[in-house]
Amino acid sequence: MKKLLLVRHAKAEEFAAGGDFHRPLSVKGENDVKQLAQKLQAEKLVPEQIICSSALRTQTTADILSISLNIPQPRATVAIYEASERTLLREINHFSNAYDFVAMVGHNPGIAYLLLNLTGKVRDVPTCAAIVLVFEDADSWQEITHESGVITWYSVPQ
Length: 158
Hints:
alpha/beta, Rossmann fold, EC 3.1.3.-, His_PPase_superfam, Phosphohistidine phosphatase, hydrolase
């Protein structure tokens, strides 16, 4: 069985001197992701690894999660930035099978479309939303495919 934690990056500042890719988290965003980490810890939903977009706001979201949850530093990849659900699924299919529970921190609309693709369910995915998907019949990440997941946990900032 494989588990995936999908996280949309926390709230970011509207503008950055270097453009969209370099937008930092807002104070609200930093607080929201710290609260998310507390919820994950309380629910014992701590992933073994975090993969994130290399955009500043997603890296910062992933860094706060990894520090708060005491897990290894996130692995950033530009492939997740502005990625379609097809690209995100391809990334998931290449996760190491050494891990059974992985988090992916990315952007909308990709995360929302990926959620729909993997579960057939529509959920609101505001900034710092987190969704745990379980793939009961998957022994490897390569087996993750269209509508093979079930939502088992969902959280949005308050």
